[in-house]
Structures are given as structure tokens and as C-alpha cells.
From TrEMBL, chains A, B:
Keywords: Amino-acid biosynthesis, Methionine biosynthesis, NADP, Oxidoreductase, Threonine biosynthesis. It is an enzyme of class 1 (oxidoreductase). The active site is at residue 207. Coiled coil: none annotated. One of its GO terms (molecular function) is homoserine dehydrogenase activity. This is Homoserine dehydrogenase. Its EC number is 1.1.1.3. The keyword NADP applies. InterPro entries: ACT-like_dom_sf, ACT_dom, Asp/hSer_DH_NAD-bd, HDH, HDH_cat, HDH_CS, NAD(P)-bd_dom_sf. Residues 351-430 form the ACT domain. Belongs to the homoserine dehydrogenase family. The lineage of its organism: Bacteria, Pseudomonadati, Pseudomonadota, Alphaproteobacteria, Rhodospirillales. GO terms for biological process: methionine biosynthetic process; threonine biosynthetic process. NADPH binds at residue 107.
Length: 430, 430
């Protein structure tokens, strides 16, 4: 049995407490697997006197996590504070400067500053591990960085935000509208009071950025991610999707294109029989397409104390056992900077829903707009017939480049009889 | 850049050639990720002069792989010969004795001799890696051994044989019978001339044994696996399953029960909406249930040159980067020997199909048999009505212990009017 691996934990929220519980409950099994015990020697959180339901009395308390990261008797600093800057960032930087390994669940921090932090970890010769930052308990970071490392990635995509997936699944099951379901999710604790990070696709974008870096060996480039959330998806869109053979999911997709790496987050209509449509509720899934392995999918719980603690502890066990890899799979100076493709270059099919005054000539106006913008319509369907009233018109476009689809939709939006901004959802063969 | 990792390859069949191609095509990326190049320095195969479509002229040729394993200038010996004994085993033993790391795709060898080989690897202080032995390109060995290592496993199960899954999927899609589809699969090269390893569940059993060892920290115990293949599954059973809301899959299941670890391989009726029913054709999937992570599923191609080479190369890259773990997750002397549960202790629901002479009194005889054996029937259905002729009767039992179900079926088989041995398929909520 080797010397204990000493852990300093910054942040004792749900995940921190779950991690302490896992480390204590399975202490013996972990020691056997790592050939050394893992001990929590220091902790830091906001309120020292709060009862958290876990015993950290054996650990030295620090009011300031940055001081702890610098001074504690610890081999690993666990950053579970969250946020892309401020104290979380300072804690990680202090730990790396002090030559301590870092394990974090902080996707925002890594999406914004991952390349710099990876460089600092390399300079210090310590690992910077973040399995818990992407897709909760699913070991996707390890799978991409090690288990599938022999492949050249073509594409990686997934359902990376359980809150959005829960909302979309519930909208589908109940026929209710977005705001109604969001409110309920907030009451149930599945969504934050400020839901923007989740429902506007930012959280998915953070996670996608990390997957992109590992899969393609690129520096993290969160600024290049196209992001569109799910606020505009209606119960009617979900029903229409169903009739067309699709389900609507918020996906993060990163793919190599002739214009560079395209990173995009948006609602997608995906075929019901495809690999991603069946992933429901709070589950996450990541699909990766490699040149030798073909398509592989990993699915599991994307959030929650247990799954996240599972991922955090796996990282700790890797550090304990001396299993390390460069933060994004290759050394920082070998990450390849290349062009980032714009969403305008995306080629795909489109679903467009319009609210239209039911009067003669509207279809002709739409047809003219499509002809002028060189977009080919696959289908058009008017729901109901009510002369003089507003009715719903649903169209699908054959695969076309997004720049053209956007021009077409913009032209259509300016037709007099179109009374609301059109709703567009991309159709993907994923 | 570190010193090259030198590889000696024993066996240049499909997987060997695929591995050489991958190592050559992605040589630079692999060197960057491992911080050292990987070089094939020695090869051994049956026929030196066969054109294999890959260039191994830079490697030293050995007619005898055992001599190569002992003498070649290599850090790693790749065993891709196959078979649980004979030259494959001798090659691996020679490599470990000579202090060389071993990477193998040989499930039969490890299922039969895994604990001894793990001990030899430990004594030599070298890794024995076998990601390719289970579920092809899916990195499930790494996921269980490292990515989910903090969990206590409750159950692990999966579709582990692409040949059987292809046959069952094709039977379902076409309504054709087993032997017909098997013959076609043999013509297409999806099934061996001697299909027994696949269709009788032996290959699934081999793979399950390895998953069991990793998930539960047990010595490999292939002898304890209950195995039943898919030869007795008929098109009618598949249609009945469909009507009952199930699909039929050959599963390997390992679970902790009050009687010990139960390892079983047999066709299962699984709910269409469950995590495993949608895995079609040559795809494999493994579901693991851990106490913290909950349910996680990994899905991908279970065989073929590309996916298998992907797994082999991942193992090689781990060796190159110095990432190692004990063969079955814990050191051999910490593997826990415990009782193996018998299939008789399994508790589940059952589907039973009978061929019965259509005459009065048969249902009464069946009911008596069930009463006497204390088995509770959920449903019974006679297909067609043809007095004096043979008709089909389909029953389902409520969950019961297998010993009782077996007694009931045995009693029913002895009823005069039952003219063929009953066909039983277990119903699982997986």
C-alpha cells in the first residue's frame, strides 16, 4: 500500500458532499484499486457551520479556498466552486502554481480558460482532470482522450444538458408549452432560478467546447460556438416533428468541414430511430464518429450528486494510480489552431413554421422568395383553412447551405401576410 | 519525444492487418498523443508470403510467435492469434515471462486463464491489456476499470455478440427462421462455418466473464456462466414478443444476488422502450449499473477490423503513455472469491410456447401443473382453434424463481397433449 493521496476540496455543495460520501463509503475498495488510500485533508466552503450531512471533521478547514490551494497539505485540489472566473479560477491557478494536481467539474472555467490552464498544468507537471465537467457520470472525456485515441474524429455530438432535455421530453409527453414546463422544472429544482445558462444553450456550448478540443486536438474556442437555445420551440413544433418522424433535441455538434471545425448548439429535429432520439429526461448522451471505430455512443446521467461524484472520484483514482494524459489529449504546444467554420456554411435540411394571414397569394409569395434565394422546398402544409384569420404554415427545405436558408427565411419574414417572425429548426440525420 | 515503443505482432489476420494500417496511417498523431512513436518491429503469422494489403517489411519476421514473444526486440507483444490454449496461450505466457507487456483481443484465452495470466503480468510488472476482447471498439474495459471505478457495481449486462444480434434482428425484420438466416450470415461472412461459439452463447459467455471480473473484482470464472444460445428461438417467438411489447436479444448478464454473483447468457425478451432493445444488427452495447453513477450505457460496433484495431491501438497507446491498471481492476491477490449463484436462483418472468393437440382438458392439465409447482400464470393464449390438430399455446408466468418455473415447464412437458418440448424464454425488465 502506497502513501495516501491527500485531497483538498474547494466547495461543499451537492457535488462536494457527494464526493466526500463516495470517498468515505468506498474507501477500502478505492484504496485496493489505487494501491493507496485517498484521504480528504482540507476543505473550504462558504459557511463553516452549515450541517451538510457529511463528516469533514478530519480535514483542516480553510475560509479561503485560494489559500487552501496554495498551502494545504494536499496532493490534489478539487475545485467544485463553479463559474468561469473569480474564486474558482484563482483556486485552480493557485493549485497548479503550487504543483498540485487539479480535479474540477467546472465546464465554464475550462471552456473559457482551458488552454491556459492546461499550459499551467503542463508547466507544473501535474494533471488537470475534468471528467465531471462534461455529461456528468458518463466517462466521455476518458473515452475520447484514451479509449478512442487511435481514431481521427469526424464528428462528436450529443445531448449535454439534462435541464433542456427534461423540458423538451416533458413538453412532448404533455403537450404543454415551454414556459409552463420551465416553471415547473424550476419548482422541482431541475432548473435554476436564472435558467439562461441551460435553456439558451450556453452550458451545452461550454461542454461542447471541451469535447471539440479533445476530439480534434484543438485549443478550446468557446467564442467560435454558435449557440441557439430552446425558448422558441413550441408544443406545435414538437407535434409537427412527430408527424414528420422526428423528435426535437437540443444538441451540441462539433464536426470537421471543408471550412474548418464547426461547433454549433441548437435544437434539432432528429429521426426517431436514430441513436440520439431515444435519450429522454435528465439523461445525457454523446455520439462520436471515428474513422476506425465508426459510431460509438455513451449514455448516462448528466448531472446530480451521485453521477458527478462518480466522475470526480474516477479522476482522483487516476491521479492516485499515476494514470495521466495531457489535458486535451495532446500537449498544449501540439494543439492545432485552424479555422473555425461559421454556421452560415452548415449544410442541412430545415423546418420552418410561419404564422400567416389566410388569404390568396401567400403561397405564391413564399414560392417566389424561395426561387429568388435558390432554396428548394421539400414540403409545405397549411394547418386549417380560415380566410382572413391567422393560420399556421409548416415548410421543410431540402438540404441547403444555411446562408441561403437564412436569406430565404428573411425574405419570407418580410411577406405582408406573415404576421410573426418565422420559427426555424434544423433537421439533422443524427 | 521519448524512445519508440516497439511492437511485436503475433497474427496477421483481419485485426492484425487493421492494426498495422491504423498505426501507419495515424503514426504522427499517435506519437504526439503518446509523446513517443509506436513502431512495429516484429511480426509472426502462418504464411510469410501471403499478400495482406499492408506493409510489414520493416519488421523482423518470425515463423514461431512464441520465439518472437521471447526474443524479439519489442516492448509489447500483440497476441491476435485467438483460441483459449495452444500457440496463443504459449505466446502470451512467453511474452509475460520475458517481461514484455501484452495486448490481446483474445476473450477465450482470458476467460479460461485470465487470473493466472494476470498474476504472471503482475509478477513481471507489465500490463496485460484486452480492450478489444470485449465488445470490439467500445471502450468498456477502460470505462469499468477506470472511468466508473468509484462505483460499487450492481449489475452489468449487454449485447456482446454481433453475429447473434444480426441473426435476431434479421429474423425480426424478415420473419424468416433461424437456420435460414444463419446460412445467409455464413455466406455473407457474418457467421463462422462452425457457428457454435456464437449462436450457442459461448462467445458472449467469454466476454461476460471478463466484464464480471472487472465490475465485481472477482477472479474470472467462466465455468460458472449459465449459457443458452439462440437456436431454439423461432420467428413465432419473435412475433409473440412483439405483440407483448418486447424484442428478443441474446444478453449476457452479471449481477450480485443474495446467493452470490450470477452470470448468465440466454435470449431475453426486453421491453421495446428499454435501454437495450434498440441495439440492432452488428452493434454491441453494455449497460452498467453502479451505486453512484446509476445506469450508464456504451454502444458501438462489436467486431470488424476497424473497431477492433481501434481498441487494440488504444491499449498500445496506454502502454506507450505509461497508463496502467491491474488486469481486472484490483491486484490479483485482492480479487474476491465468493459464491457463484446458480441459474436456479434467478427470479424473473417467463414466456413459454407449447405445441399442443387441440382437445378439451388441456388447459386444465396446464393449470394443475402450475398449481402443483406454485407458479403463477400471467396470461395464456391459444393461437387458432383446430380440434384434433396441433396448435400453438403461448403463456407468460409472473416473476418466480427459476427452479419453480423449470419444474412447472417440466410438468407441462409431460402432459400427453403437449407434443413438443416447450420453448422457454426469460422476460427481463432490462
Amino acid at each position: 500500500m502506497g502513501a495516501p493521496l491527500r485531497i483538498a476540496i474547494a466547495g461543499l455543495g451537492t457535488v462536494g458532499v457527494g464526493t466526500v460520501q463516495l470517498l468515505q463509503e468506498h474507501a477500502e475498495a478505492i484504496a485496493v484499486r489505487c494501491r493507496r488510500p485517498v484521504e480528504v485533508t482540507a476543505v473550504s466552503a462558504r459557511d463553516r457551520h452549515r450541517n451538510r450531512g457529511c463528516d469533514v471533521s478530519m480535514a483542516t478547514w480553510y475560509d479561503d479556498p485560494v489559500v487552501m490551494a496554495r498551502e494545504a497539505e494536499a496532493d490534489v485540489v478539487l475545485e467544485l466552486i463553479g463559474g468561469s472566473d473569480g474564486v474558482a479560477r484563482a483556486t485552480v491557478e493557485a493549485a497548479l502554481s503550487a504543483g498540485r494536481a487539479v480535479v474540477t467539474a467546472n465546464k465554464a472555467l475550462l471552456a473559457e480558460h482551458g488552454t491556459d490552464l492546461a499550459r499551467a498544468a503542463e508547466a507544473a507537471g501535474v494533471p488537470l482532470a475534468y471528467e465531471a465537467a462534461v455529461a456528468g457520470g458518463i466517462p466521455i472525456v476518458k473515452a475520447l482522450r484514451e479509449g478512442l485515441a487511435g481514431n481521427r474524429a469526424r464528428r462528436v455530438y450529443g445531448i449535454l444538458n439534462g435541464t433542456c432535455n427534461y423540458i423538451l421530453t416533458t413538453m412532448e409527453e404533455t403537450g404543454r408549452e415551454f414556459h409552463d414546463v420551465l416553471e415547473e422544472a424550476q419548482h422541482l429544482g431541475y432548473a435554476e432560478a436564472d435558467p439562461s445558462f441551460d435553456v439558451d444553450g450556453i452550458d451545452t456550448g461550454h461542454k461542447l467546447t471541451l469535447l471539440t478540443s479533445i476530439a480534434f486536438g484543438r485549443p478550446v474556442d468557446f467564442g467560435a460556438v454558435f449557440m441557439e437555445g430552446i425558448r422558441h420551440v413550441t408544443a406545435m413544433d414538437i407535434q409537427q416533428a412527430d408527424e414528420l418522424g422526428y423528435r426535437i433535441k437540443l444538441l451540441g455538434v462539433a464536426e470537421e468541414t471543408e471550412h474548418g471545425i464547426l461547433q454549433r448548439v441548437h435544437p434539432c429535429m432528429v429521426p426517431k430511430q436514430g441513436p440520439i432520439a431515444s435519450v429522454d429526461g435528465v439523461f445525457n448522451a454523446v455520439v462520436t464518429e471515428g474513422d476506425y471505430v465508426g459510431r460509438a455512443k455513451l449514455e448516462g446521467r448528466g448531472a446530480g450528486a451521485g453521477p458527478t461524484a462518480s466522475a470526480v472520484v474516477a479522476d482522483i483514482m487516476d491521479v492516485a494510480a499515476g494514470r495521466t494524459a495531457p489535458t486535451f489529449g495532446v500537449p498544449v504546444d501540439r494543439l492545432e489552431t485552424g479555422p473555425a467554420a461559421s454556421i452560415d456554411t452548415h449544410v442541412g435540411a430545415y423546418y420552418v413554421r410561419l404564422m400567416v394571414l389566410d388569404r390568396p397569394g401567400v403561397f405564391a409569395d413564399i414560392a417566389t422568395a424561395l426561387r429568388d434565394t435558390q432554396v428548394s422546398m421539400e414540403s409545405i402544409l397549411q394547418r386549417g383553412h380560415n380566410p382572413g384569420e391567422v393560420v399556421q404554415v409548416v415548410m421543410t427545405f431540402h438540404p441547403t447551405v444555411e446562408a441561403a436558408a437564412t436569406r430565404a427565411i428573411d425574405r419570407i419574414a418580410h411577406i405582408d401576410a406573415v404576421v410573426e417572425p418565422p420559427c426555424m429548426i434544423r433537421i439533422e440525420d443524427l
